[in-house]
Design a protein that fits this description.
The structure holds 2 protein chains of 2 kinds. Chain A is an alpha+beta fold. The radius of gyration of chain A is 76 Å and the shape is rod-shaped. The longest helix of chain B has 23 residues. In chain B, α8 packs parallel to α9 and α10 packs across α11. In chain B, α6 links the parallel β4 and β5. Chain B is 47% helix and 17% strand. In chain B, strands 3-2-4-5-6-12 form a 6-stranded parallel beta sheet, sandwiched between helices. By secondary structure, chain B is α/β, with parallel strands linked by helices. Chain B contains 13 helices and 13 strands. The chains are: A alpha+beta, B alpha/beta. The interface between A and B is large, with 84 and 68 residues.
Chain lengths: 759, 361
């Protein structure tokens, strides 16, 4: 538990970071950039548009100004008016007044068609007033305005002067505020040759007309145009109430130069202000656009960005919550359980609950499965461990030495093996090479077996000599099994110390050999002596003595044969029996055998008959040994034939071999005896043995000899009918090379071969 | 299971935090807070970066110095009524405008005053009415220079839904009916009767055979015709009076001067003269003064202020105050009533006053 630290940064943090980096921050940057670019672009475009618009309006305004000035210029050049004014100045009666009034009125009326024109007034120096315009009633004149305009016009000399927005000189007019243009009318005095002022021409122009025009221009929400005169009085404003009012000095200070654009807070609102000053009258056209209106489209971008960002944050938060709940927590739970598992504290834990079918759900499900499997595996392992302990005990306590090696390197060795190899402890052997413990003469052979085992093949039991740690050599019999040891292929070798057994065998053989020799020598003398006595060499013996001598003689011969058989068997078993192989005429050998055993058969009243012969049958054999085989078969046949019967001998040629058959008409071989008839000391009936005589070794020796001659022996028997023994020998083909003489020579002769003794 | 796990998580968190006591133990939720806070901060920064700071100026754009004007601004859109008159040269129409202006103030309407340059400027009047139709005025109060010539354009105006009120000079009723003009109230004076009274005033003073002449207004104007007829009737009632000439001076002062001059050239012994308006009467008086004739009775019409000296001097014997202001006022008043849906009398006659040297103010 002490290492149960939350990994940092965790999945939630990483995911959040990833989401932020991949979505939210790019979005933020994109949104911000779009917003900024849109703002800048809009502001630039709006500014450009405004500059153009303001320029257009300025041009329009100047057009009107020019029209009015043109009108004034035209009027002031009309001679009729000048003359009429001059006349009026001189005379003074009603008729002249009214007539002049009418005359000038008609002329002025002709000029009053100009749109936006409110009135044309002419004030003479003498106080006469001529008027056309929106009212006929000009009785109410604003004298102060008139005087002011007059002064301005005088100062302006010959030019037309604009007073800017001014109270209407005609107080009766419904147009209270007007744009007033004025010019002094002059007449060239004939006497002084000087232009003499005779009156004031005054034109009132409608701000309402300009209002109607400019008010049509829609600049957008909260935006408006404004026109101010040279005194910074409002000529046009969407709100007529402002007409004639002064623009605040703070703003005026910023309106430097002929044109400009800037952003300012106007009436508590950020405005983009564009202005252009008319060069003609220093009137100025201004446009005001609330920055908010200007940037309203960008607000959509901003709002959308905000909205999307809010959405993104919601998604991020939801993701965080979801990841925390549906991913991190299950993973932590799994991790936690793993840690409990590691600490061995996960006992009877309830299983985790899998939510959803995604990878995490799968993880949890498989974790549960893993736990189930682990439980099962632990149970199995416990059982296995118990079993292994049993087997280890078995191996450890086994009296049989067991060594496990891999590629000849010892990896396990049980106490028995250590003991046999004279090691104090098995560990003295572990790690060493198997070959170190093998007698140098056997190492090559053992190495071959080791390779075979390493290849996964078991090896048969084998006798080898091992070197003990104390240097002694022991004979062992080994078995090798290819096994899996600790998960890897290995070789398990069991062995047995057979030194003692070998010693006993050797002693027995020596004993038999010595005893036989020692017995045979005196026995030969005894047999010889008895034979001579029985033959009457020492004179005729009384009948009773003769019978006794005969018995002694017979039994000495029997004993002699027994000893020879034992010696033969010993030689055969130890491989020391010598065979002098050469091509032989089988028929001659058979006839010789029949002749030799004729006397023996007569004892039992049995005769031999050669019923079938083969001409030119050659076999490659040792004549003495083959004769021994024939004698044995013939004597057995004679011995088990009823008196007066004939033993039939037949020789026949078969494919590549010669068959020799000896048939008797005896009782047949008992069924129970048939399986072991060729074994040592095998007799059907011990009583019968006594009766029939024989050592019980004959057929065993016969079989051994036949097999050494590459032949086969067998029999057919039928109880009560008789028995036929047959021997198949390969027929010797003179064209085949004779087997090398050395084959026989390698067999070391330890005793002289005993010639077959015809009995 | 979940409770157990969260307990475990808290415990492990506490263990983790142990080496760092400055960092208080916190759960997963609270651990997220700094990240979210950072995000919001970024967000706020991004937003604040977007706003460019304008130059600081708290000044009001326009200093309202004209508070009175501001407060008297009309609320709502007043009805626009146009007064169309015949000439800007005749002070009669100044009076008429004054009356109309009084009505303007009284009824809170917007009055547009339009005047042709001369009494003969019929085409100009037509153009004025056309302009008013375009300007979509609500009503036109018109003193037509011609009783027939203006009918078509007035028909257009009526078709455009503009209320028409006829003052001063009557539109020809028969032609009006023929053209389909309907419900045009007429406000004026009884020109024939007034002219009769004016002419009768001098006629009564003539006891010896006397030649008389009449200076007419525009002959196609109904009132000119009526006044001529009135004067004729008055002169014919006096058997001493012989009418020797009837000439038109088109209501104009200077033309009347010329016409008078010609009349006297042809008939040097004319003793009585009726001019259909004061302007023409003043033109005639001017000639009579110039030619030194003092024994000629001159009767006028309109009672212009400018005629007052002539009345006092006796050069003008009599004139008729036909109360131009009253006509102008009533015309506008009728237009307002008509716009309000009232039914108006087809003809309204304003009483006239005789003004002579004895009664002049």
């Amino acid at each position: 538990m002490n290492n149960y630290m939350r990994p940092r940064p965790g999945i939630v943090h990483k995911s959040l970071l990833f989401l932020l980096l991949s979505s939210v921050i790019p979005l933020l940057v994109l949104g911000g950039m779009s917003y900024q670019v849109a703002r800048t672009t809009l502001q630039e475009q709006a500014t450009r548009h405004m500059v153009e618009l303001v320029a257009d309006q300025k041009a329009y305004l100047e057009l009107h100004v020019e029209q009015v000035e043109g009108l004034i210029a035209n009027l002031s050049g009309v001679e009729t008016i000048i003359d009429a004014l001059d006349d009026a100045n001189s005379a003074g009666d009603t008729y002249t007044d009214l007539a002049t009034q009418a005359r000038i009125g008609y002329i002025l009326d002709g000029y009053s068609n100009l749109k936006g024109l409110i009135s044309i007034d002419i004030f003479t120096m003498s106080g006469a007033h001529y008027h056309v315009g929106d009212t006929l009633n000009v009785s109410n004149i604003r004298a102060d305005v008139k005087a002011r305009v007059f002064d301005l016009a005088l100062q302006a000399d010959h030019r037309t002067v604009w007073t800017g927005i001014e109270d209407n000189v005609n107080a009766n007019s419904s147009a209270r505020k007007v744009l007033t243009a004025a010019r002094i009318l002059r007449k060239i005095d004939l006497h002084a040759q000087q232009p003499r002022p005779i009156g004031l021409l005054l034109v009132n122009y409608s701000v309402d007309y300009l209002y109607d025009y400019f008010n049509q221009i829609d600049l957008g929400e909260g935006a408006y145009l404004m026109i101010v005169d040279a005194d910074n009085r409002v000529i046009y404003h969407p709100d007529k109430r402002y007409f004639g009012s002064h623009v605040s000095a703070d703003v005026v200070r910023k309106l430097t130069g002929a044109a400009g654009t800037f952003t300012d807070t106007i009436d508590g609102q950020a405005m983009l202000l564009t202005y252009q000053r008319s060069e003609m009258r220093e009137w100025m056209v201004l446009s005001f656009i609330p920055v908010a209106t200007l940037l309203a489209p960008t607000a959509a971008i901003g709002d959308t960005t905000l909205l999307v960002l809010a959405g993104s944050f919601s998604v991020v938060a939801l993701s965080a919550w979801w990841i925390s709940r549906r991913m991190v927590r299950p993973i932590r739970q799994v991790t936690h359980h793993f840690k409990l598992l590691q600490a061995g504290m996960l006992d009877q834990q309830p299983r985790l609950v899998a939510q959803g079918r995604d990878e995490i759900g799968e993880l949890v499900t498989w974790f549960n499965t893993f736990l189930d499997n682990l439980n099962l595996k632990q149970q199995t392992e416990a059982a296995l461990r118990a079993s292994e302990e049993r087997y280890r005990d078995l191996v450890e306590l086994s009296p049989i030495p067991i060594v496990v090696h891999r590629d000849a390197r010892i990896i396990y060795c049980n106490p028995s093996a250590a003991r046999v190899l004279a090691a104090e402890h098995p560990k003295n052997l572990v790690g060493k090479s198997v070959l170190d413990r093998v007698h140098p003469d056997d190492r090559e052979h053992v190495l071959a077996r080791v390779h075979q085992l390493s290849g996964g093949k078991n090896v048969d039991s084998n006798e080898e000599r091992f070197l003990r740690l104390d240097g002694h050599v022991i004979d062992v019999e080994t078995f090798g099994i290819a096994v899996t040891y600790l998960g890897e292929p290995a070789s398990l070798v069991m062995f047995q110390d057979i030194s003692e057994r070998k010693q006993v065998d050797r002693l027995k053989s020596e004993f038999v050999s010595v005893v036989s020799h020692e017995l045979r020598t005196p026995l030969t003398a005894i047999r010889g002596a008895l034979g001579l006595v029985a033959g009457g060499v020492t004179g005729t013996l009384p009948t009773q003595a003769q019978a006794m001598i005969e018995i002694a003689h017979t039994n000495s011969k029997r004993l002699m044969r027994l000893i020879n058989d034992i010696l033969d068997i010993e030689k055969i078993e130890s491989g020391k029996l010598h065979f002098d192989l050469q091509p032989l005429h089988l028929m001659a050998l058979v006839e010789q055998a029949l002749e030799a055993n004729h006397a023996y058969a007569e004892q039992f009243g049995v005769s031999f008959a050669l019923t079938q012969t083969v001409t030119g049958a050659l076999v490659y054999a040792d004549g003495d040994r083959l004769m021994q085989v024939l004698a044995n078969l013939l004597s057995n046949a004679a011995k088990f034939s009823p008196r007066g019967e004939t033993v039939q001998v037949a020789v026949s040629r078969r494919a590549g071999s010669i068959r020799l058959e000896v048939r008797d008409h005896g009782p047949g071989i008992p069924e129970a005896f048939r399986g072991r008839i060729f074994q040592k000391f095998a007799q059907a009936d011990s009583s019968d043995t006594r009766q029939k005589g024989g050592t019980g070794l004959g057929l065993n020796i016969t079989k051994a000899i036949v097999e050494r001659l590459d032949g086969q022996i067998g029999f057919d028997t039928s109880t009560g009918v008789g028995t036929t023994f047959y021997v198949d020998l390969p027929e010797w083909n003179p064209s085949l090379p004779i087997a090398p003489a050395g084959v026989a020579a390698i067999v070391q002769l330890t005793s002289l071969p005993e010639p077959a003794a015809p009995s | 299971l979940i409770d157990e796990h969260s307990n475990n998580a808290n415990r492990s968190t506490a263990m983790y935090d142990k080496p760092n006591p400055a960092c208080p133990p916190s759960g997963e939720r609270t651990r997220l807070k700094p990240i979210l806070a950072t995000l919001l901060l970024l967000f706020a920064l991004a937003l604040s970066n977007c706003g460019a700071s304008p130059q600081e100026s708290q000044a009001l754009l326009v200093e309202r110095e004209d508070q009175a004007a501001a407060q008297s601004a009309p609320t709502g859109q007043p009805k626009t009524i146009a007064l169309v008159m015949k000439t800007l040269t005749n002070p009669f129409f100044v009076e008429m405008e004054k009356g109309a202006r009084r009505a303007e103030q009284e009824f809170g309407i917007r009055l547009i005053v339009k005047t042709a340059a001369q009494e003969t400027s019929i085409e100009q009047q037509i153009a004025i009415v056309e302009g008013l139709i375009q300007a979509k005025v609500d009503a036109i109060v018109i003193a037509p220079g011609d009783s027939a010539g203006l009918l078509p354009v007035l028909k257009q105006a009526q078709d455009a839904g503009i209320v028409i009120v006829n003052i001063d000079n009557r539109l020809d009723p028969a032609l009006s009916a023929k053209l389909g003009l309907r419900n045009i109230p007429f406000i004026s004076v009884d020109n024939e009767q007034a002219a009769y009274r004016s002419a009768r005033f001098i006629g009564d003073q003539i006891k010896a055979p006397t030649k008389a002449a009449i200076i007419e207004g525009i002959r196609t104007a109904r009132n000119a015709e009526d006044r001529k007829n009135g004067a004729l009737r008055a002169f014919q009632e006096n058997e001493q009076i012989t009418i020797v000439a009837m000439e038109t001076a088109h209501w104009k002062i200077d033309e009347a001067y010329d016409v008078t001059k010609q009349l006297f050239a042809r008939h040097p012994d004319i003793g009585a003269l009726f001019a259909a308006n004061d302007m023409m009467a003043l033109g005639a008086v001017k000639y009579l003064q110039e030619s030194g004739r003092t024994n000629v009775f001159v009767a006028g019409f309109d009672a212009l202020e400018e005629a007052t000296p002539a009345l006092r001097a006796g050069t003008l014997a009599v004139t008729i105050d036909q109360r131009a202001a009253e006509q102008g006022y009533t015309g506008v008043q009728y237009a307002v009533k008509a716009l309000a849906g009232d039914t108006l009398p087809a003809e309204t006659m304003i009483d006239v006053h005789i003004v002579s040297g004895a009664t002049v103010r």
